[in-house]
Fold this sequence. Notes:
Elements: E1 4-6, E2 13-15, E3 17-20, H1 30-57, H2 64-81, H3 84-93, E4 97-99, H4 100-133, H5 138-141, H6 144-169, E5 179-180, H7 187-193, H8 199-231, H9 237-265, H10 274-298, H11 301-315
Parallel strand pairs: 3-5
Antiparallel strand pairs: 1-2, 3-4
Helix pairs in contact: 1-2, 1-3, 1-10, 1-11, 2-4, 2-10, 4-6, 4-8, 4-9, 6-8, 8-9, 9-10
Amino acid sequence: xxxxxxxxxxxxxxxxxxxxxxxxxxxxxxxxxxxxxxxxxxxxxxxxxxxxxxxxxxxxxxxxxxxxxxxxxxxxxxxxxxxxxxxxxxxxxxxxxxxxxxxxxxxxxxxxxxxxxxxxxxxxxxxxxxxxxxxxxxxxxxxxxxxxxxxxxxxxxxxxxxxxxxxxxxxxxxxxxxxxxxxxxxxxxxxxxxxxxxxxxxxxxxxxxxxxxxxxxxxxxxxxxxxxxxxxxxxxxxxxxxxxxxxxxxxxxxxxxxxxxxxxxxxxxxxxxxxxxxxxxxxxxxxxxxxxxxxxxxxxxxxxxxxxxxxxxxxx
Length: 316
């Protein structure tokens, strides 16, 4: 095979490119799947760009919560753009090849953006905790330096996680096959493909990625335990409903994102099924970025109000 090249002194082999096997689908359905995928991708871009635009142009949304939401939408655009365009290209032209460097870069950006989103969602939970439990100190607890520092920490942690995992995975040997049983370069299928001893890589991936996923998740749970405790002390039913409503969108996003991420990365490699992993990956890599702007706009009266104000100005 042309894509297998000799390393030389080590008498081992490494691939120069990979083949993304994608989904087992009837060739007759590829055009339909391409059309659906393109529609989902464009909808994701439009929805998240609309959220970012609304936050920038409407003064009422210039608050810490929407500052974080705008950054979440930016991450979602980048996140889905690391995998979906290549998937659409494969469906359209049938060219499933991806270079070794291209595969490493795809994994790096995908894991970095996913880790950043994990930490950012915990930052958004802290924002809700500060707003509901300490309303008089909210502007101090979420001042501009603090929220920018939290955002920078999110990106730093996400990138550190990605650097370590990508370096470990692509230092392995891939000598038996270059067919990746997935529609993008992800950690589990590449570990499964390697002919090296992957025990150390699996342990490090489980430890570091587990911390990046589980620690923010635990902080989110802690934030909401404190929020519920505070809300239950509110005497009026209307006050309780209003307080909980500000958390509904964030809780929905956290449930979808963390449920699929934990299933994929925080479980023993022996229990991995590539077919199941592909289906679950569709949820957190493609569907979640599409749903986020819908969840925040449909459940959020402030975003709806901003949209009507912008539309009203454009008509007048």
